[in-house]
Amino acid sequence: FQDSFRCHSVSLLAAEQQRDASRLEYSDKIILPPSCLEKLAQLEIQYPMMFQIANPRAMERKLHCGVLEFIAQEGMAYLPYWMMENLRVSEGDIIQLRSVNLNKGSYVKLQPQLTDFIKISNPKVVLEQSLRNFSALTKGQTFRILYNKKKYDIGVVEVK
């Protein structure tokens, strides 16, 4: 499966549907149109559904993600804002998406982007709980978590 979409922030969808944006924003799950589910079902894609998402204007900018729902308007994909930042895309820009099969990881080296993260009471537990919202990590990406109403950016240094 491979297709292009106009991307928008999940916060925009949350505002339109009066949903909790934090549930959508602090994960690596995207929202795609219903037609994608139909195409993916025909292709008998492997579960869980995993995708590589890229900026066609900067193909070195790639991430991996899962899908939360198939409720987006046709031609649109909704992404967490941290993903848009990593891909260097803005509201309405075109992204490319393709299905991928990823090997299960055995090791990840993470680096908080601010020393404030180390000062929280139990950063390891906070990270472990936050990572449950993620399907895949990509070396070089920076993802965002929320703890006690504060945002923390975490860099992915290495994956195995």
TrEMBL record:
<feature type="domain" description="Ubiquitin fusion degradation protein UFD1 N-terminal subdomain 1">
    <location>
        <begin position="1"/>
        <end position="102"/>
    </location>
</feature>
<dbReference type="InterPro" id="IPR004854">
    <property type="entry name" value="Ufd1-like"/>
</dbReference>
<comment type="similarity">
    <text>Belongs to the UFD1 family.</text>
</comment>
<dbReference type="GO" id="GO:0034098">
    <property type="term" value="C:VCP-NPL4-UFD1 AAA ATPase complex"/>
</dbReference>
<dbReference type="Pfam" id="PF03152">
    <property type="entry name" value="UFD1_N1"/>
</dbReference>
<feature type="domain" description="Ubiquitin fusion degradation protein UFD1 N-terminal subdomain 2">
    <location>
        <begin position="104"/>
        <end position="160"/>
    </location>
</feature>
<dbReference type="Pfam" id="PF24842">
    <property type="entry name" value="UFD1_N2"/>
</dbReference>
<dbReference type="GO" id="GO:0036503">
    <property type="term" value="P:ERAD pathway"/>
</dbReference>
<dbReference type="GO" id="GO:0031593">
    <property type="term" value="F:polyubiquitin modification-dependent protein binding"/>
</dbReference>
<protein>
    <recommendedName>
        <fullName>Ubiquitin fusion degradation protein</fullName>
    </recommendedName>
</protein>
<dbReference type="GO" id="GO:0006511">
    <property type="term" value="P:ubiquitin-dependent protein catabolic process"/>
</dbReference>
<dbReference type="InterPro" id="IPR042299">
    <property type="entry name" value="Ufd1-like_Nn"/>
</dbReference>
<dbReference type="InterPro" id="IPR055417">
    <property type="entry name" value="UFD1_N1"/>
</dbReference>
<keyword id="KW-0833">Ubl conjugation pathway</keyword>
<dbReference type="InterPro" id="IPR055418">
    <property type="entry name" value="UFD1_N2"/>
</dbReference>
